[in-house]
Amino acid sequence: MIPVTEFRQFSEQQPAFRVLKPWWDVFTDYLSVAMLMIGVFGCTLQVMQDKIICLPKRVQPAQNHSSVSNVSQALASTTPLPPPKPSPTNPATVEMKGLKTDLDLQQYSFINQMCYERALHWYAKYFPYLVLIHTLVFMLCSNFWFKFPGSSSKIEHFISILGKCFDSPWTTRALSEVSGEDSEEKDNRKNNMNRSNTTQSGPEGSLVNSQSLKSIPEKFVVDKSTAGALDKKEGEQAKALFEKVKKFRLHVEEGDILYAMYVRQTVLKVIKFLIIIAYNSALVSKVQFTVDCNVDIQDMTGYKNFSCNHTMAHLFSKLSFCYLCFVSIYGLTCLYTLYWLFYRSLREYSFEYVRQETGIDDIPDVKNDFAFMLHMIDQYDPLYSKRFAVFLSEVSENKLKQLNLNNEWTPDKLRQKLQTNAHNRLELPLIMLSGLPDTVFEITELQSLKLEIIKNVMIPATVAQLDNLQELSLHQCSVKIHSAALSFLKENLKVLSVKFDDMRELPPWMYGLRNLEELYLVGSLSHDISKNVTLESLRDLKSLKILSIKSNVSKIPQAVVDVASHLQKMCIHNDGTKLVMINNLKKMTNLTELELVHCDLERIPHAVFSLLSLQELDLKENNLKSIEEIVSFQHLRKLTVLKLWHNSITYIPEHIKKLTSLERLSFSHNKIEVLPSHLFLCNKIRYLDLSYNDIRFIPPEVGVLQSLQYFSIMCNKVESLPDELYFCKKLKTLKIGKNSLSVLSPKIGNLLFLSYLDVKGNHFEILPPELGDCRALKRAGLVVEDTLFETLPSDVREQMKAE
Q1: Cα–Cα–Cα angle for 596, 600, 606, nearest 5°?
Q2: Number of C-alpha atoms within 13 angstroms, CB side, residue 28?
Q3: Which one in 177, 331, 376, 495 has a CA-CA gap of 20 to 30 Å to 35?
Q4: What is the per-residue pLDDT across 725-769, written as a single tens digit (0 to 9) for each?
Q5: b/e per residue 373-382 (b: at least 16 CB within 10 A)
Q6: Residue 498, burial from CB neighbour count under 10 angstroms (0-12, 13-18, 19+)
Q7: Closest CA to 560 of 550, 548, 552
Q8: Residue 625 half-sphere exposure, CB side, CA atoms within 13 Å?
Q9: Which residue in 751, 744, 743, 711 sits closest to 727, CA to CA?
């Protein structure tokens, strides 16, 4: 007998695929097994038993005289012999005999075969084979979508991810956190759900449910002791699952091959069911026990008419009726499947019930094949969809990232990164993290927090624990803030620095920081920035004193003018964009420091001369060639710092002498060839930088600068230094490197406070031993060739090397 297990390959699929088999597929699988057993049993009988048994029929005498002799012979041959008479040795034995046919075994076999092929109806002959073939087709149709390459790969991937999501400790933790909600919140959610369902009731009171999950079990409750913190490995596995789910969703939602494949195989099964019912119902009566056989084989057997017995007719008849019953049930189940497929929108899946049940409100609805597989999963167990939905939630993913961050960045590890910044504050820099660790807010001594390239930063209410926090730097970060945290920052934050690539990265809450004193903005803004709504809100920053904008503005924003009354320092770094309309500077009457860097200015703006409170002016990296307007600076009585470096200035006008209040003056990186003696009439100058020019001569009037502490003429063409330079007794830094000097005067020993001397790159052959009188000058502060340093006396060298 043929074992049924031989046909397993036609319906075998991975055990994990059972979660995608609804009850009707399981039921039809069992029906297929029953029908398969009928076919196998019938085929086995066909092979092992005689199919048909035939006997010749008696022929009546014919009236034709020409055939009398033949008939007589036939009758004689078929006339039974008289029974033997009792013998003396066996008086009671009588041998019983039937009709004589004079046919041997081979002839009977031939007759049986001929009548089986010619007389027996094809349905009676091939019934078990038809059952077997039809059943195998049913089994193939039921499992074809599990085997087809275009669909099986998606199914395998989905089942793999689904199992990992179901068993993930993070799923248990996320749902257990929801299970710990207050009962009042649960009741409110249930009431809202009931009201929502009531509004969806049909006209006859029947509930019209548009949700995908009809019967999810009660909320998954886990003992808090089992939902402890994830270890690092579990956290990384959950993080990888989130990424897999995202990529799988993008891939599967693009098409509906799974849905189309399942619909087609179901339609094919229904069509086949109708065909089977139609022809089987018509032909089942053809299975008869007695069959008349008329075959022209008289010349071979002597007979033409036979009466045959189909030995399995009775059994086949019963099996056919049983098979029809199974097929009918199978077909009705397939019809119900079609009804389920077309009555509901299976290419859309809503997690509305899960959102209400779990409280995770950002679980997105899905479509196409992703939705169809989730519908199929619901028929197996809705709990799978509920636990899988956790990995579709962005909120859940952010919580996991936060948990992993907290495990990785412990308070002790964060304290190791603390450093002092330029504002002399204790700063914690965090770069390229997936979020902001909650452990940051346990470092109560923190004064400055610097975040760089961190997406989706959420500043929680626990920031209020940082009592000393005064400075916040956000570089290419998208930041959200808790309302309680915003209240804290409004009162405590003094300095905010924002570096952005997109205007949307500018935090809208920064305009409400009423106690903010310093604001630094770095990023690309619109050229027509005055019409930008976001910056107009700067007028609410009533305590703002310092504003720095490094961007590409074409004019000073109106928002800046709105805070002009209390603004003390403004910096505009324009990255080469020409700043044209700057008359608004006149309104900044309290401005003490102004930087207009890389603004493509060709002249000193006249509006600057109206800033009577101005103390420092920096016009670095512009296109200044002539500075005749410098005479107007004489009205700025408080101006002490003037930086005109990195321009194209060719000469210094004599009017410079009128700027008697100057203390710091920088003309470095220009094209100046001649120094006017009037420059040194600004006798309050303490810092003078003339480096990187084409100067050949230093006027002896330099000795007038008795307050001079810093003097640099590096990278010029100076051939000699006037002795009057060494009258500047307060000089601490002297940079004369990369010139054409050949002799260094021994009078340099008069500079008792000299601590830094750069003479490298000249033509000196020897250094004066009087350098030893400069007690503050050490080897680290002397920039000179090693060979030239060796020309100093040994005691001077030892003195400089000594700490």
Answers
A1: 60
A2: 28
A3: 376
A4: 999 999 999 999 999 999 999 999 999 999 999 999 999 999 999
A5: bbbbbbbbeb
A6: buried
A7: 548
A8: 1
A9: 751
